[in-house]
Design a protein that fits this description.
2 domains; flat
Length: 350
C-alpha cells in the first residue's frame, strides 16, 4: 500500500503582492462565491526549490536545474578545454538536441532548446563527459549514450516531476502535489498609490513627483495543502530512503518558512506558518479546503483561530464518514503545541 503524507498549513501574510497576474495585480480566485487571494503552486514550488536557506542548505548536490541553456554550458566547457569554436558549437548542439528541439529563431543561440528541460546533476555530468569524448574524436550517439536517467538523486525532480517531450520514457511523475494557496476568508485587492521624488530637483522647479505609480496588494490567512507520495518519491530516487527522508524534511521546512518572492522589496512579506498539520497513512488523500467554502470571516473575528477550528472539524467529520485512519502531528504557534522539528521527525518516520 502507498504511504501518503498530507500537509495542511495556515500562514498569515500582512499587506503583500506575493504572486502577480499579467497586469501586476495579486492573483485571486472565487471560492464559495467569495473573492480570495491566491498564490499559485508554481510560485510556491519555485520559491521552495530555489531557497538557499532550506533546499540548497539541506540538499546541496542533489538538486536539478531547469533550463533551455545547457547547450551553452557544454559549449563553454569545451572552449575551456581548448576546442575550436566551430567544433565546440557543433558538439554542443548535438548534446543539447538530446534534451529538446533546438532553437531556430533568429537572434537566439542555436545551442539553446525551445523547451525548459529539468536536468539532474548526474545527467549534466554525463552530458559533459560525452561531449569530451566527442571532442577527443570518439563517435557518439547521444540518444544511446545513457545520459538521461529514469531515476537519480535530484530531489526536486523526484518531487515535482518533469516532462521531456522528445523522450517520454524519461519523464518523471511528480511525487509531490501542491495546491494553489487561497485565503480562508474573502479579501478585496486594494491599491497603493505611490510616488517617487527626484532627489536632484530644485525648489525652483515644480513640486510634482518624478514618478507616480499604482500597485495592488492584499492580506490574509492563507491555507496551503500539499500531498507527498512517499513510495513514488523513493522510486524516483532509485530507492534511496535516506535521501527521500531528507527531501521530505526540506519540503516541510520550506513550506513553513519560505515565502513567495513577489514584491518582497516593497512589502517585506516574510512570514512563517502559524499552524501546520501533517497526516500520515495509506488512506486516499483529500484536501480540507472545503472547510472554507463559507468564508471564516462570516463566523468569527479571529480569522486564524476560526480557520484552525474549521479545518480540524472537517477532518474529524471526514474520518467519521469515510473511516479514514491516519496518524497526525500538529504545530500550533498560538497555543505552543508542537514544534517544526517534531512535525518533521514524525513525517520522516517509517
Amino acid at each position: 500500500m502507498t504511504t501518503f503524507l498530507q500537509l495542511h498549513l495556515f500562514t498569515v501574510y500582512p499587506p503583500a503582492n506575493l504572486n502577480r497576474d499579467d497586469i501586476g495585480r495579486p492573483k485571486t480566485a472565487i471560492f464559495g462565491e467569495a473573492p480570495r487571494l491566491r498564490v499559485s503552486s508554481q510560485a510556491l514550488k519555485r520559491a521552495w526549490r530555489t531557497s538557499e536557506e532550506v533546499f540548497e542548505r539541506h540538499l546541496r548536490g542533489h538538486l536539478g536545474q531547469r533550463t533551455q541553456r545547457f547547450g551553452e554550458v557544454v559549449e563553454k566547457h569545451l572552449l575551456a578545454k581548448g576546442a575550436p569554436a566551430d567544433r565546440a558549437r557543433a558538439i554542443a548542439c548535438e548534446i543539447a538536441d538530446l534534451f529538446g528541439k533546438l532553437e531556430t529563431e533568429a537572434g537566439k543561440p542555436p545551442t539553446q532548446i525551445k523547451q525548459l528541460a529539468f536536468l539532474s546533476p548526474e545527467e549534466q555530468a554525463a552530458a559533459l563527459a560525452l561531449a569530451e569524448r566527442a571532442l577527443a574524436g570518439a563517435a557518439i550517439d547521444p540518444k544511446k549514450a545513457g545520459v538521461l536517467r529514469e531515476a537519480d538523486t535530484a530531489v526536486d525532480i523526484a518531487m515535482f516531476g518533469r516532462m521531456l517531450a522528445d523522450d517520454p520514457a524519461y519523464n518523471r511523475d511528480a511525487a509531490v502535489q501542491v495546491a494553489h494557496a487561497i485565503t480562508t476568508h474573502k479579501v478585496m485587492v486594494e491599491d497603493d498609490y505611490y510616488t517617487a521624488v527626484d532627489d536632484l530637483k530644485t525648489p525652483a522647479e515644480d513640486a510634482g513627483a518624478g514618478f507616480v505609480g499604482e500597485a495592488g496588494f492584499g492580506a490574509g490567512v492563507f491555507y496551503l495543502y500539499a500531498c507527498i507520495n512517499r513510495d513514488l518519491l523513493e522510486r524516483n530516487l532509485g530507492g534511496d530512503r535516506a535521501l527521500a527522508g531528507a527531501g521530505i524534511a526540506a519540503l516541510i521546512e520550506a513550506a513553513a518558512t519560505i515565502a513567495p518572492k513577489g514584491k518582497q522589496a516593497s512589502f517585506a512579506s516574510h512570514a512563517r506558518t502559524d499552524y501546520l498539520l501533517v497526516e500520515k497513512g495509506e488512506t486516499a488523500p483529500r484536501t480540507l479546503a472545503g472547510a472554507f467554502l463559507r468564508p471564516v470571516g462570516d463566523r468569527d473575528g479571529d480569522l486564524l483561530g476560526a480557520s484552525i477550528h474549521a479545518l480540524t472539524s472537517l477532518r474529524d467529520r471526514y474520518a467519521l464518514a469515510y473511516g479514514d485512519v491516519t496518524a497526525a502531528r500538529a504545530m500550533n504557534v498560538a497555543t505552543g503545541e508542537g514544534t517544526l522539528a517534531q512535525v518533521i521527525a514524525f513525517a520522516r518516520e517509517g
